Amino acid sequence: MINPRYLERIISDLRKEDAILIVEGNRDTDALTKVGIKKESVIESAQKKNSNIERDIIREEKTVIPLFDNDHSGMARMKRFIEYFTGCGISIDLSYSRKLKAAGITYIEEIDNALSY
């Protein structure tokens, strides 16, 4: 069950972050922008090689916040992401992924609907 109050606090904190958010695809980006996340802060990882994402991240010199779905494929993607990018020395903040899971979010694309924006 989704906890809208907790989710709103998480999204409010994400809006304040000076970081790059990595999501799986376009629907995730759309959901985040509908709740006030700047589109230029989001990188879609679907159909991209990690090396291409790495170039985008290094250019920005910011902390990276991966927001993958809390399902089997999203968790597998997260594991591969962490293995690759920690090896590159990139700062990764996993706290938001854990918080979204605790708020009841399974799919990033459902965030905007959960908050009724």
Average pLDDT taken over every residue: 93
Rg, Å, rounded: 13 Å
Number of strands: 3
Q: What is the overall silhouette?
A: globular
**What is the H-and-E element order?**
HEHEHEHHH
Provide a count of the helices: 6
How far apart are the termini?
18 Å
Tell me the helix content: 40-55%
Largest sheet: 3 strands, parallel
Q: Topology, pairings included?
A:
Elements: H1 4-16, E1 19-23, H2 26-34, E2 42-44, H3 50-60, E3 63-67, H4 72-86, H5 95-102, H6 111-114
Parallel strand pairs: 1-2, 1-3
Please give a quick description of this structure.
The protein is mainly alpha-helical and 117 residues long.
Explain the overall architecture.
- The chain is mostly helical and 117 residues long.
- It is built from six helices and three strands, in the order αβαβαβααα.
- It has helices at 4-16, 26-34, 50-60, 72-86, 95-102, 111-114; strands spanning 19-23, 42-44, 63-67.
- The chain has a three-stranded parallel beta sheet with strand order 2-1-3.
- Strand 1, helix 2 (26-34) and strand 2 form a beta-alpha-beta unit.
- The chain is globular and about 35 Å long.
Salient structural properties:
single chain; 117 residues; mainly alpha; globular
